[in-house]
């Protein structure tokens, strides 16, 4: 169970996340959807206690992340492709995390098997491809067999077989009663994976609904998404369907609520 | 631990993770990087080699210098090299986590950040202290054998010699902790190493050139070479214990500042 309440994060005068509130319930895959730069990763980092919010709070199982008794046993997260030292082997990286989380070392071999990295467990992880890095990150998330899982853009760098594998993995985890929050900007992927959707744009909540409801009027999820985010895409090329005047100077011409252009985090 | 303890949901285990878990984590991390071992080997080999070379080149003092002649100081010359290598590893223990992204998995495992830095400092400071004391004694014993037979060899039982050797080893342990603090303060590898080299070498050398020992004597490298690694304290320098006490204060201040920055800034 994840509860986000009035979460706000500013970088200078720009709000990356603004007064964001939503819950992520157990037993379902909740898709966290939004254009590039909409604040998905920032929100996830605040849930993990890595970034401090300027206002509001994010609770996991009713507590701020920093107050969890056994963080890795309660929350597993794939935050970015590479969150390991390139000079360390996959096995050593996970063993160190397991030690910090009070998790038996035998669990390391188990999760390496689960993600299919047993063969390369003792190779320097710096030699891994993006897909392998992603799998190592997922192994780290599964390490403590946690009840809450966060995946930030998990299909990045995975081949089609890997994409199907992570999709089945997330659905399986939710079916076991776990809380699964997965961010993506790939709507087609979300349509196949998610039961519930939290859609944000420019750091604000745009929709908190089931996939079925969002597409109830017969629209595809993609159409529904564009309708929701039409005013809040931060980065948009000029050759797209809604090509407009120079966005660098006036990026928010389509949105009365948008206030300023935002750089990457 | 049964598999039931790993079932989903909160409250899976009694108690809470603690410093012992974090120490184990940092110990595994330190020893699982090949660069750690290479660097520590460099410290051992470099300090002994410099001790031997310096002693082999030590000439018998002229009559007027006999009172201040201190071969113990010569044999410990390698501390200057050792502190650079130890300092760089200490800095990298923290900045390497930022550049690789592993700081995020570390802080996800251990969200109480002061514990992370304390474990890094304890593990690396402890390893360095033990290794440096051993190397300091080895260097002394091997180095003095290289001394011109015409010169009387210093002995550990001579006044101040044992203290000089012990303090030189301890100095590197303090540098290890200070470097971890600098890494947490500065975060970027190149800048942090710049700060380290500036504090240890560049600034004191410039001050020594401009104002002699007046200000320079308060810098770590000067304290190590002229206050700690001496069996005959030099009148214009800090006394051994004053120098050592000042180093303790420096280390505590830099480390505390590192903790503060680590806690307050986004990871």
What features would you describe in this structure?
The complex is a heterodimer of chains A (265) and B (267). Chain A is α/β, with parallel strands linked by helices and 265 residues long. Chain A has a single domain (2-229), classed as Rossmann fold (3-Layer(aba) Sandwich). Chain A is 31% helix and 23% strand. Chain A is built from nine helices and nine strands. Chain A has helices spanning 40-47, 71-74, 90-101, 106-115, 130-142, 160-175, 187-193, 211-214, 221-229, and strands spanning 2-11, 14-24, 28-33, 55-60, 75-78, 148-152, 179-184, 196-201, 204-210. In chain A, the strands form two sheets. Chain A has a six-stranded mixed beta sheet, sandwiched between helices. Chain A has a three-stranded antiparallel beta sheet with strand order 2-1-4, with helices on one face. Chain A is globular and about 50 Å long. Chain A starts with a strand and ends in a 36-residue tail after the last helix. The model of chain A is unreliable at 243-265 (pLDDT under 50). With 267 residues, chain B is mainly alpha-helical. Chain B has one domain. Helices cover 72% and strands 0% of the residues of chain B. Chain B has helices at 19-31, 34-56, 71-75, 79-100, 102-109, 113-145, 161-186, 189-211, 213-216, 220-228, 240-264. The longest helix of chain B is centred in the middle third of the chain and has 33 residues, at 113-145. The interface between A and B is large, with 49 and 40 residues.
């Amino acid at each position: 169970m994840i509860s986000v309440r009035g979460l706000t994060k500013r970088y200078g005068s720009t709000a990356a996340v603004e007064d964001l509130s939503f819950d992520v319930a157990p037993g379902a895959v909740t898709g966290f959807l939004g254009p590039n730069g909409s604040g998905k990763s920032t929100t996830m980092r605040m849930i993990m206690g890595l970034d401090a919010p300027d206002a509001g709070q994010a609770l996991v199982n009713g507590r701020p992340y920093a107050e969890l008794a056994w963080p890795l046993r309660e929350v597993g997260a794939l935050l970015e492709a590479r969150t390991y030292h390139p000079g360390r082997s996959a096995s050593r990286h996970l063993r160190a995390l397991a030690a910090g989380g009070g998790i038996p070392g035998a669990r390391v071999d188990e999760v390496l098997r689960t993600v299919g990295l047993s063969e390369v467990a003792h190779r320097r992880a710096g030699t891994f491809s993006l897909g392998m890095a992603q799998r190592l990150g997922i192994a780290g998330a599964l390490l403590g067999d946690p009840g809450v899982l966060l995946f930030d853009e998990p299909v990045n760098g995975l081949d089609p077989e890997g994409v199907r594998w992570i999709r089945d993995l997330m659905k399986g985890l939710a079916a076991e009663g776990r809380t699964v929050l997965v961010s993506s900007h790939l709507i087609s992927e979300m349509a196949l994976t998610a039961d519930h959707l939290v859609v944000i744009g420019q750091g604000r909540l745009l929709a908190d609904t089931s996939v079925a409801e969002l597409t109830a009027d017969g629209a595809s999820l993609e159409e529904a998404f564009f309708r929701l985010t039409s005013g809040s895409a931060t980065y948009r090329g000029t050759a797209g369907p809604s090509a407009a005047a120079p966005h660098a100077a006036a990026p928010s011409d389509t949105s009365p609520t948008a206030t300023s252009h935002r750089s990457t985090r | 631990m049964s598999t039931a303890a790993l079932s989903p949901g909160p409250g899976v285990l009694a108690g809470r993770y603690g410093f012992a878990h974090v120490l184990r984590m940092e110990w595994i991390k330190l020893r699982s990087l090949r660069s750690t071992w290479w660097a520590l080997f460099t410290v051992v080999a470099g300090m002994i080699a410099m001790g031997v070379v310096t002693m082999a080149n030590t000439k018998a003092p002229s009559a007027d210098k006999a009172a201040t002649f201190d071969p113990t100081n010569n044999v410990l010359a390698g501390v200057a090299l050792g502190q650079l290598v130890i300092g760089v590893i200490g800095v990298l223990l923290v900045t390497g986590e930022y550049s690789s992204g592993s700081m995020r998995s570390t802080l996800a495992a251990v969200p109480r950040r002061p514990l992370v830095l304390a474990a890094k400092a304890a593990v690396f400071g402890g390893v360095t202290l033990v290794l440096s004391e051993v190397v300091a004694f080895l260097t002394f014993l091997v180095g003095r054998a290289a001394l011109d037979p015409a010169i009387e060899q210093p002995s550990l039982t001579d006044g101040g010699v044992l203290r000089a050797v012990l303090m030189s080893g301890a100095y590197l342990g303090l540098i290890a902790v200070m470097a971890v603090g600098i890494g947490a303060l500065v975060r970027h590898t190149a800048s942090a190493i710049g700060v380290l080299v500036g504090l240890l070498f560049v600034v004191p050398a410039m001050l020594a050139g401009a104002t002699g020992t007046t200000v320079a004597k308060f810098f770590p490298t000067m304290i190590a070479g002229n206050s700690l690694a001496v069996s005959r304290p030099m009148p214009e320098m800090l006394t051994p214990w004053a120098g050592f006490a000042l180093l303790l204060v420096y280390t505590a201040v830099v480390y505390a500042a590192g903790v503060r920055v680590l806690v307050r800034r986004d990871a």
